[in-house]
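cron nightly-structures :: item 1 of 1
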Amino acid sequence: MAVNNFKELEDKIISERGSGDEETKKKVNANIGFFGFISTLLELYLPKVGEVLKSMAGENEVPKKNNNQSEKE
């Protein structure tokens, strides 16, 4: 039977590296939690950004009544 060096190399790499299943699961769960947190922040605050920018620009200001006009009428 012929020696398959690539198969031996593959077996060696797998034995050195290990399975890494638990570490991978932890990393994936951490990423899911992080992106869930970011999506919650965006969902809560992104709709209000437009209103804040409008108020800073002065669009939502209440027009001031002119006292002279109300006295004449």
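cron nightly-structures :: done
The first helix runs from residue 5 to 17.
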